[in-house]
Amino acid sequence: MELTEAKITAMIGLGLSSMLVGLLPAWFSTHGRQQWPLFLSSLLCFGGGVLMATSLVHMLPEIREAIPNEYQKYTELIFCTGFFIVYVIDEVVHFFYGDAHDHGASTNRNNTQDNHKTLTRRHSYSYQRKSGYGTTEYQPLLYGDCSYRQEPYNPSYPPISSSNNTSWDDYPPSQLCHVGHQEPCDASPIGNVGLLIALCVHALLEGLAIGLQTSSSQVLLLLGAVASHKLVVGFCLGVELASNAGGSSCRHFISITIFSLGSVIGIITGMAVIEIPKNILEIAFPVLQGLAAGTLLYVTVSEVLPRERARWHKQHHRRVAGMVQLMAVAIGFVIMTVITLLLDHNHN
User: Fold this and answer.
1) Number of domains in the chain
2) Same domain, yes or no, for 247 and 324?
3) In a domain, 122, yes or no
4) 39, 43, 222, 319: which has the highest count of C-beta atoms within 10 A?
5) Domain limits at 179?
6) Torsional sign, CA 199, 205, 210, 211
7) CA distance 102 to 235
8) Residues 314 and 263 both lie in one domain
9) What is the 3-state secondary structure (H, E, C) of the chain?
10) Residue 25: how many CB atoms within 10 A of its CB?
């Protein structure tokens, strides 16, 4: 196969396969959000694990390997710069458009305050302090007829009612959960936009690497390496876009198309500027890769995972949801790590 034919094959193969796997989640997300909400949440957490491994295990070592020796000490700094760029943009958007992105926080806060006042009126009690040598004890003084149900911050405590002869001294008066329960702002475009930009930059640079190859065998070898993880990442991007209740099918299609064209444009660029000075590539490639990796990490740990954890920590009739999400994140991380290590071994 000629070199040009191999690169054209790579463009068509990466473009079409990326679009196919990216659009696939949209076909079942419409009904799946109501019928299999935990399954969809697990897919999103799986995608979070994949994206985390892509950022930390796949991209970060590539940056350190590609950057010149005299600049290797700045690898992590470039990575963190990408993280903070998106962080700053996110906070600036919320500062100027915070009212538009309220996402019901004030409503939830008012409901919480009303519930607290009601519970205070219905189940008010005080504490007597007992002090001894080296000890301090708080003991409730009043026990009323209580139909109070433990608020869903800790599902391990059952409801207390007047019918089961259970007194307040059998349970602590309050329990605190280890995570917040407010979901990140669904209306904010920063999460999906940042994710799309980071993955597109990464795809563009990978396509550029394919386009700069000088033999058809190298092109096909690199094509297999790129496709093996790009398809997994593309599916995770599709799941994330499809999970956005405010998103439309047209927006989903446009986003996946942009992602699919990233590698295609990269290959075309590599074919067109194959004579680009090497010293420029040695600096530009790792810097762009580092910024994209930092962006990817921010979206994963500040948008995707906190949202899913908060969403399911509110629904304590499914106590197993948190463990399912944890397993999904771990599986996604392990799969992407294994793919990366195998590709590195074959490359070496």
Assistant:
1) 2
2) yes
3) no
4) 43
5) 145-184
6) positive
7) 30
8) yes
9) CCHHHHHHHHHHHHHHHHHHHHHHHHHHHHHHHHHCHHHHHHHHHHHHHHHHHHHHHHHHHHHHHHCCHHHHHHHHHHHHHHHHHHHHHHHHHHHHHCCCCCCCHHHHHHHHHHHHHHHHHHCCCCEEEEEECCEEEEEECCCCCCCCCCCCCCCCCCCCCCCCCCCHHHCCCCCCCCCCCCCCCCCCCHHHHHHHHHHHHHHHHHHHHHHCCCCHHHHHHHHHHHHHHHHHHHHHHHHHHHHCCCCCHHHHHHHHHHHHHHHHHHHHHHHHCCCCCHHHHHHHHHHHHHHHHHHHHHHHHHHHHHHHHHHHHCCCCCCCHHHHHHHHHHHHHHHHHHHHHHHHHHHC
10) 25
Among 154, 128, 160, 151, CA closest to 141: 128
Closest among 203, 299, 285, 304 to 244, alpha carbons compared = 304
Q: What is the pTM of this model?
A: 0.67
If asked whether residues 17 and 162 sit together in one domain, one would say no
Q: Of 41-45, 69-73, 147-151, give the range with the top mean pLDDT.
A: 69-73
Give the mean pLDDT of the chain.
Answer: 75
